[in-house]
Specification:
Elements lengths: L14 H9 L18 E6 L5 E8 L2 H20 L9 E9 L7 E7 L5 E8 L2 H13 L6 E4 L2 E5 L4 E2 H7 L8 H18 L9 E8 L2 E8 L23 H10 L2 H21 L1 H11 L7 H15 L10 H11 L4
Antiparallel strand pairs: 1-2, 2-3, 3-4, 4-5, 5-7, 6-7, 8-9, 9-10
Length: 340
């Protein structure tokens, strides 16, 4: 199993990346920053419905600040969901603000409640880590999923990605009679291929969700990454292959039962073809992103050196050895993979 034993460093958003974010309307002026939310004066442990500690805390703000903070949070939600149209927030209220006490960047999660139908939505406020921003943008361009996020200074706002957490799905639904093992394993093969070719690491079952969509009398599955902290950071090749994580063993064993090497290869080729199609549509945007990413430092040089050697051996080409940054390796990985 590709263990990640140390917290990764947080890399600031560079000037080139900031220019890219502004060009594509990802960077705007927001009424509140991550550091402002640290001014809470009380917190209580948040438990789930079974009484288990979630490792999140619900935080509370001084009476003198709370109205301004709640209005600012509603404004951010309007920017994220409705291009700043505050009319959509008239029936919404900020129900709760939670702080993750174990996460690498200690994100805040904001719960928004619809007062008309009591429905909930969430969004996250985090420190803006450059590698995470690159991960979000690569997901938006290269995957079948659209990603909504915003930056402001060194603050990152992310939408909530809905789905059944992978670990929960494996425990409760993997052996369910309604689960189609072939369709599910096919999607995992494609997910594994996407992660490896764009170098997204740490995709164990707690860092992705399974999205289920009814399709006539069958279920269509999509596996979606929800954590992008390990975009092009670690120096070990295995970190970028979800198939090697112990937490994903259940679906690997299912795949060994229902998939043949020929079908696995077919799905890998299909996914690379789909990535190439997406890239053709977004070629200009991708090139602009690489203009920012390739000269950027988002990982220690020792990690870059180790990974380029591993990828050179894996792909049997010395081209990787000329890479100087993680951005260079992402570019070369996509090139060798035949998608650009």
């Amino acid at each position: 199993m590709p263990l990640i034993t140390r917290k990764k460093s947080v890399y600031p958003v560079s000037n080139l990346l900031r220019e890219y974010l502004r060009q594509y309307s990802r960077d705007i002026t927001l009424p509140i920053q991550y550091t402002d939310l640290l001014r809470y004066d009380n917190a209580v442990t948040l438990y789930d419905q079974r009484g288990k500690d979630t490792l999140w805390e619900t935080v509370f703000y001084p009476a003198s600040d709370v109205s301004d903070i709640l209005l600012a949070l509603k404004t951010i939600y309007a920017e994220l969901k409705a291009d700043g149209d505050m009319s959509v927030t008239g029936h919404l209220t900020i129900d709760r603000v939670d702080l993750c006490t174990y996460g690498n960047t200690q994100p805040f999660r904001v719960r928004v409640r619809n007062q008309v139908n009591d429905n909930f939505d969430y969004f996250y406020i985090k420190r803006a880590d450059a590698s995470r921003v690159y991960g979000l943008e690569l997901e938006h361009i290269l995957s079948p999923n659209r990603i909504s996020y915003l930056t402001s200074g060194q603050t990152l706002i992310e939408e909530h990605i809905a789905g059944i957490p992978g670990d929960v799905f494996f425990t409760n639904l993997l052996s369910d009679a309604a689960t189609n093992p072939i369709r599910l394993c096919k999607e995992f093969v494609k997910f594994n291929e996407r992660c490896f070719i764009r170098l997204l690491g740490d995709m164990h079952s707690s860092n992705f969700v399974v999205d289920l969509t009814p399709d006539f009398d069958e279920i269509y599955y999509r596996i979606r990454a929800i954590d992008f902290d390990q975009q092009s950071y670690e120096g070990r090749k295995s970190v970028y292959l979800p198939q090697y994580y112990t937490q994903n063993r259940a679906i690997i064993e299912l795949g060994m039962k229902y998939m043949t090497p020929e079908s696995v290869r077919q799905y890998q080729i299909e996914e690379r073809s789909l990535i190439a199609s997406r890239l053709r549509v977004e070629k200009s945007r991708f090139n602009d992103l690489m203009t920012a990413m390739r000269p950027d430092t988002i990982s220690p040089s020792a990690h870059v050196s180790s990974l380029r050697e591993s990828l050179a051996r894996h792909h049997r080409t010395q081209d990787f050895l000329r890479a100087q940054t993680m951005g260079d390796l992402v570019w070369k990985s996509l090139e060798v993979g035949g998608v650009h």
